[in-house]
Write a structure and sequence with these properties.
80% helix; two-stranded antiparallel ribbon; mainly alpha; 3% strand
Length: 301
Amino acid sequence: MLDVFFSSIELQIMAVGALVGIASSAVGTFLVLRGNSMLTDAISHSIVFGIVIVWLLTHQQSGWFQLVGAALTGLLTVFLTELLANTKRVKQDAAIGLVFPALFSIGVLLLNLYANDVHIDTHTVLLGEIGFIWLDTTTIAGYNVPQALVSMGIVTAINYLFIILFYKELKLATFDPALAKTLGFAPSILFYVLLMLTSTTAVAAFDAVGAVLFIAFAIVPPSAAYLLTDRLWLMFLIGAFISIASSVTGYYLAVRWNVSIGGMMAVMTGAFFVLAFIGGPRYGIVSQKIRRMHARRANAL
């Protein structure tokens, strides 16, 4: 079984896409519930600044230094956003729109000025190319395993370990931060740790899928899950299922139509969201119309 998996490029690509989706939707669930989902967009763009700064300081294009630098840049993005919003002169969404383009632009300028001959490409950072993940491998137990599969597997495990260990605290901090603070759960610290994990997930996903697909996976599956259930633990399961299904169907449709694999995976997350929006058992358009129809009939009697 392992021989088949590690020798199949198709399975490797779909597995990496699924892991990116599972890891991203896990942290994205809390951001969607908090109404901070667009922070994933801000973080995924602004950490280009962190990637370039780390390279200027260490001359390393990958590794833990890049992960730490990106995580700190993500926190810087949120800190500057909240600093602007707290002035009451701009709203939260406007603050996000001011901060991340500035950091992203500075990162691109530094890249062009000081790292123009280095393989840190803004096009790759934003779009990636999941179809080539099998070219960059590492050897584990005698098997050549895509580096992206290893890194995303580790990040996925870390994200879910954090959620499992602090599930009650995260749940309370998400739905009632005032009560969480009263009980001493430090919701602000939990939120910043969550954002650090979001930044780390974004960087780990860059080489394989780029920022655009990361944003789609972080926002769309949790949003679709929210339309299908009111239970938090079930949102994680549904988000993971949508991520896996989007990766598998997106890959085969991309091959069939000869289009971008990552782009088609993102499109499929949208397709599943539309299905949830239309056919959700509680918030879906069809179910709401049926309930209104039954209510009218009951009133008529």
